[in-house]
């Protein structure tokens, strides 16, 4: 191979199906980072060449296309997956071939693979903060609603354990809907919420059905000022789909919001819109997809190879100035130090940041320290 040959990388995000809104944003965050790296001369003069496939929101297709990337296209590093079911479908492929997967999505934790770099939030970087805020400001009677796959089940289990540490806590109900749920699928759930009056609703609904849930809530006349939906997965992208009226007042925990008022974030958003326009909405998963490509490029420049043996030691411990702040890949568990934040959707469809960490939080994917009040960082906060 000539020293000027392109470096082929796999880009495996859904551009169709019920999770395509977030998947497309992750793909374009990845492509934006590739553009920046190539415009700066590539990696030691070699451009990055993305090999892009659409797995259509189907875990089996993720596995098949990951195998094709590795065995046919010669890809050594894959950037991809949104849902945990798709990640779990791809992990056996990268482990079998000893390749590397960069995974840019918050997830339920309790996992480690030597062939995965996790750049989204682990539960101690979002669930703990959200549980503490909601129980402190609204109460500890929670109603759990999720999509019917692994992440919502596990995330709801964690939220239950956190909330039930609080005095006067209760799980009012726990309901699951199909991934392609419509507004009609939420009618009974919303009626039950109206009758049972929990202190807050914890939503692990993902994809297009998020819009259906929030609209059903709004049409039932429920008030987010006193009984909000709290989520880890409802981002600016879903807010744009459902409309400001349905979204305003609800709360999300995430390392990144568009409303972060930093020169770096503002420059990146402007650059992205010049490149892709306004039809794809930047969000927490978009930001993680963007930063992880830069982490890879920086590490490969030091390693001189995209083979996992020389590359992985250069990735572990890498730091990068991301829009959320300076992140670091933790060598002991392959997860990322990120900045927990809490935001409430305002009348413009953006998130007003209620609380944010002043320094990154170490990832604890196995929740060794499962404590409701353990944020272990200084916070800045605004009054609600």
Task: Outline the secondary-structure elements.
Blueprint: E1 7-12, H1 20-39, E2 48-53, H2 59-71, E3 77-80, H3 84-97, E4 100-103, E5 116-118, H4 127-137, E6 141-147, H5 150-163, E7 170-177, H6 187-196, E8 200-204, H7 209-219, E9 229-231, H8 236-242, H9 244-247, E10 251-254, H10 263-276, H11 284-303, H12 308-315, E11 319-322, E12 325-329, E13 336-337, E14 341-345, E15 351-357, E16 379-381
Parallel strand pairs: 1-2, 1-3, 3-4, 4-5, 6-7, 6-8, 8-9, 9-10
Antiparallel strand pairs: 10-14, 11-12, 12-13, 14-15, 15-16
Helix pairs in contact: 1-11, 2-3, 4-5, 7-8, 11-12
Walk me through what this model shows.
- With 384 residues, the protein is α/β, with parallel strands linked by helices.
- The protein has two domains: 192 residues, Response regulator (Rossmann fold, 3-Layer(aba) Sandwich), CATH 3.40.50.2300; 178 residues, Response regulator (Rossmann fold), CATH 3.40.50.2300.
- 38% of the residues lie in helices and 20% in strands.
- The chain contains twelve helices and 16 strands.
- The strands form three sheets. The protein has an eight-stranded mixed sheet with strand order 7-6-8-9-10-14-15-16, with helices on both faces. It has a five-stranded parallel sheet with strand order 2-1-3-4-5, sandwiched between helices. The protein has a three-stranded antiparallel sheet with strand order 11-12-13, with helices on one face.
- Helix 3 links the parallel strand 3 and strand 4.
- Helix 2 packs parallel to helix 3 and helix 11 packs across helix 12.
- The longest helix has 20 residues.
- It starts with 6 loop residues before the first strand and ends with a strand.
- About 1% of the residues have low confidence.
């Amino acid at each position: 191979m000539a020293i000027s040959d392109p470096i082929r990388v796999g880009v495996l995000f859904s551009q169709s199906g019920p999770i395509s809104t977030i998947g497309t944003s992750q793909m374009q965050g990845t492509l934006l980072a590739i553009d920046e790296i190539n415009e700066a001369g590539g990696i030691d003069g070699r451009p990055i060449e993305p090999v892009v496939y659409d797995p259509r929101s189907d875990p089996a297709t993720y596995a098949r296309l990951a195998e094709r990337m590795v065995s046919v296209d010669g890809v050594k590093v894959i950037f991809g997956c949104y849902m945990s079911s798709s990640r779990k479908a791809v992990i056996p492929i990268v482990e079998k071939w000893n390749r590397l997967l960069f995974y840019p999505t918050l997830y339920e934790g309790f996992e480690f693979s030597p062939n995965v770099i996790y750049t989204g939030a682990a539960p101690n970087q979002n669930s703990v903060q959200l549980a503490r805020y909601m129980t402190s400001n609204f109460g500890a009677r929670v109603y759990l609603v999720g999509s019917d796959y692994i992440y919502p089940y596990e995330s709801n289990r964690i939220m239950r354990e956190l909330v039930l540490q609080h005095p006067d806590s209760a799980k009012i109900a726990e309901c699951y809907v199909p991934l392609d749920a419509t507004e009609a699928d939420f009618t009974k759930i919303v009626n039950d919420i109206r009758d049972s009056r929990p202190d807050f609703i914890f939503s692990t609904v993902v994809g297009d059905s998020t819009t259906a849930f929030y609209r059903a809530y709004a049409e039932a006349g429920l008030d987010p000022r006193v009984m909000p939906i709290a989520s880890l997965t409802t981002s600016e992208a879903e807010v744009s789909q459902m409309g400001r009226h349905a979204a305003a007042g609800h709360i999300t925990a995430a390392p990144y919001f568009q409303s972060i008022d930093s020169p770096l974030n503002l420059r990146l958003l402007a650059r992205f819109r010049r490149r892709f326009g306004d039809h794809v909405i930047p969000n927490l998963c978009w930001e993680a997809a963007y930063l992880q490509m830069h982490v890879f490029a920086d590490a490969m420049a030091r390693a001189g190879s995209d083979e996992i043996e020389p590359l992985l030691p250069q990735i572990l411990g890498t730091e990068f100035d991301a829009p959320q702040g300076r992140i670091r890949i933790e060598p002991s568990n392959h997860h990322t130090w990120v900045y927990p934040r809490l935001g409430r959707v305002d009348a413009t469809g953006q998130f007003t940041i209620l609380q944010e960490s002043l320094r990154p939080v170490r990832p604890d994917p196995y929740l060794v320290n499962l404590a409701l009040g353990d944020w272990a960082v200084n916070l800045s906060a605004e009054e609600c």
